[in-house]
Sequence to fold (647 residues):
Amino acid sequence: MVGGGSGTASAANPIRIVVAGDAKTGKSSLIVTAAAVDFPKNVPPVLPPTRLPGDLDHDHYPRTIIDTSSSPENRGRVFEELTRADAVVLTYACDRAETLDRIYTYWLPQLRRLEVKVPVIVVGCMLDKRQDQSSFRLDQVMSPIMQEFREIETCMECSALNKLQVHEVFLYAQKAVLNPTAPLFDQEQQVLKPRCVRALKRIFILCDRDRDGALSDEELNAFQVKCFSLPMQPAEIQGVRMVVQEKLPEGVNERGLTLAGFLFLQALFIERGRLETTWTILRKFGYNNEIRLSDDQLPPPLKKYPDQSVELTSEAMEFLKKVFFTFDVDCDGALRSAELEDLFSTAPENPWNEAPYMQSAEKTALGGLSLDGFLSMWALMTLLDPIRTVESLIYIGYSGDPAAAVRVTRRRRLDRKKQQTDRTVYQCFVFGPKGSGKSTLLNSFLGRPFSEECTSTASESYAVNVVDQPGEHKRTLVLREILSEGVKDLISKRDALAACDVAIFVHDSSSESSWKAATEMLVDVASHGEATAYEVPCLIVAAKDDLDHFLTEIQDSTRVSQDLGIEAPIPLSTKLGDMSNIFQKIVRAAEHPHLSIPETSAAKSRKHYHRLVNRTLVFLSVGAAVTVVGLAAYRVYAARKASSSSG
Fold:
């Protein structure tokens, strides 16, 4: 997508520039003159889409210009065209000041209401009609407007009659689409934008082959050849060094151009209007207009069944371990906030600063991530968004085959048949009514202290950690808290349980209503699994064991677990720290996917019915066989009798 428009600018689908403005502001004349070179004598009210040939500029990029009507009855069509634009040209008449006022009182606010987020070129037409040219300063008039409306890329004035700056209007619009300022540069602060800095830092590191923190003459030349296919002469390299050293002494050292100097050069190019230089560099390293890696730099979406999951490969895990120890600069065995930000400083942003990753892993006493916590976060992101994992790996320096960084696991359905699994990351759905202790259980899993305050969870949350199992092997467990009000909606989807390895049902053991609500959820989930063939092992968790149980809690929970054919409820108290090895038990259930699967009464009835049918079929088969044998014996007897009679 180019410039945020709905179409993709290419030879087959050119840049779409929509021209809008008040009536009689020269829209159609501007377009006709650009297309036909000569000023037209008769211009229709609205032109059909006009294709400007690519040979009118050195980029040879075709452009389609869309004229718009000024009639109120056609306003809806105008708005539709604006939402499809790659760039917008807003016109005013140079001899009518009120049409310029309308640009910032009506047209620019209207573009925002329509959520049109593309470059805007403000153009004054009919410059030849302005009587007093000397008293009007376009920069003074437009400066406050451009301060308020940052989407304005540039403003200019032209004359179709005198053929003055007509082609430049659409050339600027084209450049604004292909090389937009907004993603790169904050014009108010006059600095590179953070995402641009992060991308350029990654490019600098990739080009700094000897990792000495500076680009030598040889490295700078290799960078030049990669981006522009032209080597730099020694005098040119020396010239670059001198320019940087004069303005920014720390931008150059004895080893070459530093990161600060590299960033200074890019800002200088942009300030001088040479945005195409910076964009060429970014695109040579695989970035798109959002300054993210473009799709062709990433593996295609993974093809998998709903009951398959995605995990990191051992190669990616080893890379991440090396990264962890590289950025653990104080060698305290944890990545603190500043170290983590430094690690992700070559990515567009820290992917873990947003839901659902924030607060989803265990932190050390000083707020850092241990190696297990660090790898757990990567496991969670890979489970939920594997392509973003691969993208993030590339940003932080992974140079292997991106497709080899992750693997698709075997289907859970097949795991149940084989009665084993090769997964190393398990996802557990945590069900339970409000106040049952779900959130407290997740907090306990992350080593957080117990709190008496009961806070309602507003959205689904995750907790991920490493669980030590007997035999010195570790598994990563992801707990996903399912909101009680969202259970019905969840199980209305056929594949709702496909990604689930284990489901646990938490109830407050002191509350009979909590128990009944959890039991209903258990039966609903079990029934859904039976209906969709996505059965999952289920465990019942009796939370708040430190409180007095309701009168029949033990008998009721034991009866239900026996009726469903699953383990007895697991009592625990997060307040007392008595967790009954709940997390190890969850992992054990995931490792034996054929066990602890509940069987509802409806399933038992169906199974009993199928047994009766099978027995009946067997009886009928045996009866039919006896009949056939009897008939055959009778025929033999009859044949022998007839033979003896004739003898």
Notes: The first strand starts at residue 15 and ends at 21. The CA atoms of residues 30 and 160 lie 6 Å apart.
